[in-house]
User: What shape does this take?
Amino acid sequence: MAGRGWRAGIRALREDPAAAHIAPLAAFLLLLLLTQEPVLIDNTLQPWYRHAPEQWVYPLQCLVAGALLWFFRRAYVLTPLRGWGFATVCALVGIGLWIAPSEFYRAWRMEPGGLLHFLGFQDRSEGGFDPRFFRDHSLLYCGAIALRLFRMIVIVPFIEEIFWRGFLMRFLYDRNRDFHRVPFGSFSWFSLVGTSLAFMLAHQPADYAAAFLYGLLAGWVAIRTRSLAACIWMHAVANLVLGVYVLWTGQRGFW
Assistant: This one.
């Protein structure tokens, strides 16, 4: 009886739409806390797993979030599969707006600080993930880059779009109805702007303006295509371009 009850509980959890849409991102963000104090000790004399915990936390995030996505896979409705071209254009526009302020800052040799600083006009060469941590070990160095790209191009687009557009945007559209009964892509200004603001606050302050605009574009893709797959594709394309940009320019503060 105990075994049967345990299996029934697992089955009920797997079929819970709210858990399926929230759990992967929630687990991802909770694991991200391990890159902060007290786990992080900003001292190069400390062991690497304390001085640079992101080197093992990021792969762990991929493993845990990927496992949850697989566990809840039956709860996600990706069809209809359409809107790829429109989503691609929006991805390029969105990521262009994201990196443009930093490019202008460098090209114009702007002074740091001021109001424009909060709009992303700042140097982004410091901070973020640094694969050079393994620069003396070519295999580990290439592996770190590959895992970082896998995280941002595959894992992040799935868990974020499933939550932001798949859950929150529908929840805010009609809070008196089970969110999964709200057609994907249903439009109201409250749900579009509210989701974009929440998406913005999930990022670092330097990216607030760009994240809000990107959130509006992603919401537009959801509304126009009514396809979760198109939103995931948009996010994946945008992150692929960002990853290539960071590797090309060294502006690793973006990741």
